[in-house]
Specification:
- There is one protein chain.
- The two termini are about 40 Å apart.
- The radius of gyration is 24 Å and the shape is elongated.
- By secondary structure, it is mostly helical.
- The longest helix is centred in the C-terminal third of the chain and has 12 residues.
- The chain is built from 2 helices and no strands.
């Protein structure tokens, strides 16, 4: 059973911004029942000049991304974890 010491570090996960497709949304927005407000008037100089650069992907795609990242973390059931063996000294 030969394996690489860096086996767990070989994952290449793309960023959320590199996934998805233009126009895709993670939420379904309900129709609004309040009057529209012009952000430039309401916020003045604090209003955004352009839209925020948010990733365009669905909720399941975002969920899968974070699950994939969590699987790269070390877990006690995935390998040996010496609990304090280097700090436990014989002290008579």
């Amino acid at each position: 059973m030969a394996g690489s010491a860096q086996q767990g570090l070989e994952h290449s996960t793309p960023l959320l911004f590199e996934q998805g497709a233009p126009g895709r949304s993670g939420v379904s927005k309900a129709p609004i029942d309040v009057p529209r407000v012009d952000p430039a008037k309401a916020l003045g100089k604090h209003a955004r000049k352009s839209a925020a650069p948010l990733p365009e992907l669905s909720e399941p795609e975002a969920f899968r991304h974070y699950v994939r990242l969590s699987q790269q973390n070390f877990a006690i059931d995935k390998g040996m974890y010496p609990l304090g063996s280097c700090t436990m000294k014989y002290n008579p």
